[in-house]
Amino acid sequence: MTSAAQALPSQRSVSEDINTLTVVANGEVFGLPIQMVQTIFRISSLSPVPLGPPDVAGLVNLRGKIVTAVSLRRRLKMDNDVVEPNALAIGIEHKGEYFCLVVDSVGEVLSLDEGKRIPIPPHFDPERLRLTTEFYRAGTVLIPVLDVNALFEFGR
Amino acid sequence: MDELLRDFIVETNQHLEEAATQLVLFERNPTDASLIAKIFRLVHTIKGTCSFLGLMRLQHIAHAAETMIGELRNGAAPTQTSVTVVLAAIDRIKQIVEAVEATGIEPEGDDADMITQLDAQAEMLAASLRGEVVSDAPVAAPAPAVEAVVEAPQAAPAAATVPEVVATPPSAPTVKAPPANAAKTAGGANARNSETIRVAVDAIERMMQLVSELVLTRNQLLELTRHRQDDAVKSPLQRLSSLTTDLQDAVMRARMQPVERLYANLPRLVRELATECGKKIDLVTEGADTELDRQLIEILRDPLTHMIRNSADHGLESPAERAAAGKPEAGEIRVSASHEAGQITITIADDGRGLDVEKIKKKLVSNGAATEQELGKLSEDEIFKFIFAPGFSTAKQVTNVSGRGVGMDVVRSNIESIGGSISMQSKLGRGTKFSMRIPLTLAIAPALIVEASGLRFALPQHAVVEAVGVGQNSGHVIDKVQNALVLRLREEVVPVIDMSQVLGLDQSARQSGEQLVVIMRVGGESFGVIVDKVADVQEVVVKPLSASLAHLKVFTGHTILGDGSVVLILDPGGLAMSIGIEKSGDKKREVKKDNLGADKMRLVLFRAGPGVVKVLPVSLIARIEMVEPGRIEHADGRLTMIHQDRLMPLVPVGSTSFDPTRSYPVLVITDGDLTVGLLVDEIVDIIEETLDVQLSSGGYETIGAAVVRGQAVEFIDVTSYLQSVSSSVTRQPARDTGRRQVLLVHNDAFAREFLAPMLSSAGYRVMAAASAKEALQVIDQGSHVDAVVTSTDLAEMTGNELASAVRRTPSAREVPVIGLVGTDDTHDEADSDTLTLRVQAGDRQSLLAGLSAAFKAMQRAEKRSASKSKNEAAA
After folding, report:
1. What percentage of chain A exceeds 90 in pLDDT?
2. B560–A154 CB contact, under 8 Å
3. Distance, in angstroms, between A38 CA and closest chain B CA?
4. Which one has a higher pLDDT value, B441 or B628?
5. Read out DSSP for B611-664?
6. Which residue has the higher pLDDT, B440 or B345?
7. Nearest residue to B153 (alpha-carbon basis) of B191, B188, B111, B190
8. Beta-carbon neighbour count of residue B435 at 10 Å?
């Protein structure tokens, strides 16, 4: 959707392998570009933001930094996830702001090469496609790679 | 950029600032050799560093300046001109340094003009030292006209060759610091120079962050060990805890800088202002060592400059005026800073002419900001507040310095944006004083930690006035008037919002029971916020909201509390806006206008059913009777009682539920043949007050809500009750009158008190005027009037004359005027009558019938003209 998002795939095609961290939300597997991931932590307490964007679960204190927590389930319109204490979150810095993506669980780091990239199937939900950059085959599963830029841009 | 170069820029800027201050001090006190020695050293250092770095332009100017100042150091007497030239040279150096800072290289340019001036000055000073120019004044020296130097630098050398001898400088601005203070300032600056190192702001910010994390870790540790009785751990932990607090304090202090930095430019500013305005000004600065957060110092610079400009330009009088008023010729501007209870107070006081209240009033009336009647009710201090309104200026003419009326509102909003406040005091002929109260630092602010529906938020304390408990056990009650919440607090009625509602919180988590209302004040308006409780008062470290949340206007930032949890900081201004406080200011003013000339009347306050206290004017009530249980009877679904041998219908007011076992007060209302008793729960009070109906209601049985003695009350509509008991009444129903505005003119206060409620109970809105003059004023001011009811024998004019006068105003040309004829009025009916109608003063029925007929006629005329214009349009 943004020019930055469109620029990403072409940049990556230069490098051989793309390392992604797999995360799970509501049973589905997604990939996150590993270079974006700064830390993985458990949320000890969360302060909701009244009147804020609905996908923002709240604010988290991560070692003295205030981090905006975004629920991946809510973002992907899976369900109206209530983020429980002790939830797993992935710290990501985006445009100088600290965010964290709340997920169900974290899998392994996969090395995805250009050969496994597949064209985006045309009948996929456009709402979700907005948040993904590309699709890869990894063994038997299809892994959509999340677009970090789109994830943390809230239409205002 | 080269690191050496960067250091040079920072250092040079500091030196320049210092040199300028010292120079002005020196001009005031030319015998102080230590001052000039210091200035010389400063310029010398600049010159040295410039040559080292190869900045040739700077080096040349500094060299010329050094030579000239050298002459001063050798004992030459400084003149107005020599100081001006040196200041100009320093300005030039500053410009070049700024350019170097921006581009990294010295800009192209020619400074020959500046250097020639400096050289000429040096030559002259040297000559005066040699005694070549003889002058009869001790501090006199050959000086070219100041204008020639400032405005036409290229002409200066020529002027300098034809020096004219002046006995005294054109105007003598002086800068005075109390001797002890001056010494301290100078000494302090020295001491600091020898013991300071320069640290990047980033480094300090990083330290702040680390300390914050340390505090959090400490708190977690304390929480963990709280329940253990292990002394081996306890005492080192105690120590760690107190050290952490000290460290936090120390790092905070590292961000602090003395107010002196803010003062540094002032002597020069005042000197220039004095020349520009042709006044003599003494500047006194106090409390230079008061410390303030560096960020705040930068924010305060502009407002302070603005206020000093104001003081110099319209605060202080010209020397002649001052002499005439018996004051010393030189005016004084005193700037002082002090530390009080966690806040810094900075005052700017002048001993000038002070503010003229009458002049401000005139200005306000002429630009339509307020009417004379409104202003009459305000105290002096309240009127002074208008100078903080946008676009206000009393200056007779716009000068270079100030008077454009852009200003004090900006100053106020600047100060308020950093959580400060500004106030003003003034005495005519004695001077004006502005006081700014500013928090010590922006980074840390005391805040109330409040809870609403299970969530915690921080409310900045600077906006909080007080917190009051509401509920059954406390004296304060929140009323719901027309779906809006208000709190009666002493003599005030404060609009109230529910925080849980404003923030859209899930209220199921809410604990019932006692609640608190936090009273806040924003820009002069008070409002209350309902919270569940105040959990704590803490110093919070304010962090701005991230960009993705910055659009939320009710929050200004977030912070981490001592226990490590994140809370959002509420923005008092945003909260005020969420209930439209900004707007309500205008609305109130409008309503006031409509109620001009409202007189005090006797009112009965009573309770009837749930809800707020109700009110009726005494004049509408024939009598109040206490009725014992047995006297009230049910007859075909209605309540009745025997009253003066007749059967009187009783109507419960509001939803007063009738209990046949208790006694009730009954308000007896009579209108012509019709009598009705209003059954109420209890009479609260009978008082004399202005009835100011503020919110007109569309509801049945009430005319509107009003504020009486700080209480919200409902003004009930008697006509609706009269109608409810008698379908035979052929009265114009209240709502059909479309709330016409009637202007009641009568010299007699008793008559007004009697007639006004009668008219308003018939559904009209009433304005009362005590004289023909007042009435015409109301119409002139553009208040809308549908009809005029006047006595025919006013003190100033007859009813006929008033009618003609009223109709002279274009908007009131068609207005019906009804005359109330006294019994001894000997008016001859045959006279050409401009009055629409005459009725006998005591005849209420005829008056009401007359009014309603007049309005009907008006309606018909309107319809006719409407259809006529429609026909014309069709044709």
Report:
1. 20
2. no
3. 18
4. B628
5. SSEEEEEGGG-SEEEEE-GGG-EEETTEEEEEETTEEEEEEESTTPPP-TTS-E
6. B345
7. B111
8. 15
Q: What is the mean pLDDT of residues B850-872?
A: 73
For residue B377, with 0-12 CB atoms within 10 Å meaning exposed, 13-18 middle and 19 or more buried, which class applies? exposed
Average pLDDT, chain A: 81
Model pLDDT, residue B348: 92
Where residue B145 falls among pLDDT bands split at 50, 70, 90?
Answer: very low
**How many helical (H) and strand (E) elements, i.e. helices and strands, does chain B have?**
26, 37
Whether A133 contacts A8, CB under 8 Å: yes
- Classify each residue of B652-675 as buried b or exposed e, where b means 16 or more C-beta atoms within 10 Å of its C-beta: bbbebeeeeeeebbbbbbebeebb
Amino acid A155: pLDDT: 63
If phi > 0 it is left, if psi is from -120 to 50 it is alpha, else beta; for residue B20 that is alpha
pLDDT of residue B261: 83
Here the ipTM equals: 0.81
- Flag whether residue B565 sits within 8 Å of chain A, measured between CB atoms: yes
Residue B568 at interface with chain A, using a CB cutoff of 8 Å:
yes
Q: Which residues pair with B712 in a beta bridge?
A: B707
Residues in CB range of B718: below 8 A, 6 or more apart? B616, B620, B669, B671, B761
Enter the tokens of residue B795. 């003190």
Whether residue A49 and residue B552 make contact (CB cut-off 8 A), yes or no, is yes
Q: Beta strand B525-531 with B515-522: parallel, antiparallel or unpaired?
A: antiparallel
CB-based contacts of B731, cutoff 8 Å, min separation 6: B719, B722, B723, B762, B848
From residue B195, how far is each of B181, B190, B290 by CA, in Å? 21, 9, 18
Please tell me if residue B455 touches chain A, with a CB cutoff of 8 Å.
yes
Query: Which backbone phi and psi does B548 adopt, to 5 degrees?
Result: -70, -15
- Tell me if B350 sits within 8 A of B331, measured CB to CB: yes
According to DSSP, residue B746 is labeled -
- Say whether B546 and A63 touch across the interface (CB within 8 A): no
Cβ contact (<8 Å) for A50 and B505?
yes
Locate the chain A residue with the closest alpha carbon to B216.
Answer: A64
* Closest of B567, B572, B535, B580 to residue B554, by C-alpha: B572
Q: Strand B566-570 and strand B455-460: pairing?
A: parallel
> CB-hemisphere CA count at 13 Å for A111?
3
Confidence band (pLDDT; 50, 70, 90) for B656? low
Is the pTM of the predicted complex or chain greater than 0.80? Answer: no
Token readout for A116 is 């496994």
Question: What backbone phi and psi angles, to 5 degrees, belong to B640?
Answer: -140, 165
Q: Dump pLDDT digits (tens) for B22-56.
A: 777 777 776 677 777 777 777 777 877 777 777 88
Is residue A23 a contact partner of residue A32, using CB atoms and an 8 Å limit?
yes
Look up residue A102 and give its two tokens.
């709340």
Can you say whether the dihedral through the CA atoms of B37, B43, B46, B51 is positive or negative? negative
What SS3 state is found at B830? coil
Question: What pLDDT score was predicted for residue B187?
Answer: 38
Of B455, B551, B560, the CB nearest to A66: B560
CA distance B865 to B875: 15
| Interface list for A 88-107 with B (CB within 8 A) | 95, 97-98
- Per DSSP bridges, beta strands B711-716 and B613-617 are parallel
Closest by alpha carbon to B449, among B507, B533, B573, B519?
Answer: B533
Asked if B762 contacts B734 with a C-beta cutoff of 8 angstroms, the reply is yes
Return the number of CB contacts < 8 Å for A and B: 62
Q: Give the tens place of pLDDT for each residue, B353-397.
A: 888 888 888 878 877 777 777 777 777 777 887 777 766 655 544
Can you tell me the distance from the alpha carbon of B682 to that of B665, in angstroms, rounded to the nearest whole number? 6
